[in-house]
Amino acid sequence: MQIEEMFLKRRSTREFSEKQIDDETLESICKLAVLAPSAVNLQPYNLFAVNGKKAAEFTPNVQIDGANGWASGAKAYIVIEERAPHSVITRDGRTISNAPFIANDVGILSAFIVLAAESMGLGSCIIGIRNEKGIAKFLDLPENSLFPLVIALGYPANDCRAKERRRRDFNKTYKLIK
Ligand SMILES: Cc1cc2nc3c(=O)[nH]c(=O)nc-3n(C[C@H](O)[C@H](O)[C@H](O)COP(=O)(O)O)c2cc1C
User: Fold this and answer.
1) DSSP letters along the chain, please?
2) CA 108 – ligand 1 centroid, Å
3) Which residue has the CA at smallest separation from atom 15 of ligand 1?
4) How far is the CA of 142 from the centre of ligand 1 (A)?
5) Within a domain: residue 123?
6) What CATH number should be reported for the domain holding residue 115?
7) In a domain, 178, yes or no
8) What is the pLDDT of residues 124-165, one digit of tens each?
9) Overall pTM surpassing 0.90 (yes/no)
């Protein structure tokens, strides 16, 4: 699929067919996604692919107070774990930047995940509403582990993706200066 077509076609997908996802496909998506740029190339995350029956067991972790009911149909998840404190950029012993880039890094990684998934015919939805303590327990990791985003995946159900793109008026978002 051409990259432009992929940008135009991708939508958050919240209705999935019954088709299961191969473990190899999930690994391929993650292998492409870690090519995402990150501050100081720190790649401050680990990725967990949760598939098959385990995905169904995982689902309550993204359904707090009735949110994300649609996720009951998701066939797999990619869970992003925050791995490192934010990058401190130094030059000649001086701190040049102490900015917390982790949110940027995770956001870009997520974009790479959804586009890699799209290129393999999979639908996806980034999920911010999540129970981090529940995820830590599920993954058998320390209770204070951080999981900034989860991506739900599945093959899209027929015609489930809205045709309309709802976006802020481009002319309000964009200005050319020359
Ligand atoms: C950081 C982030 C968190 C999100 N969290 C959720 C979520 O918890 N549940 C959900 O259904 N969609 C979630 N979304 C998806 C957005 O609602 C969706 O991307 C937006 O409405 C634009 O629609 P589109 O992705 O189809 O273009 C999230 C998206 C982002 C980037």
Assistant:
1) --HHHHHHH--B---B-S----HHHHHHHHHHHTTS--GGG---EEEEEEETHHHHHHGGGG-GGGTTGGGGG--EEEEEEE-SPPP-EEETTEEEE----HHHHHHHHHHHHHHHHHHTT-EEEEE----HHHHHHHHT--TT----EEEEEEPBPTT-S-SS-----HHHH-----
2) 14
3) 126
4) 27
5) yes
6) 3.40.109.10
7) no
8) 999 999 999 999 999 999 999 999 999 999 999 987 776 778
9) yes
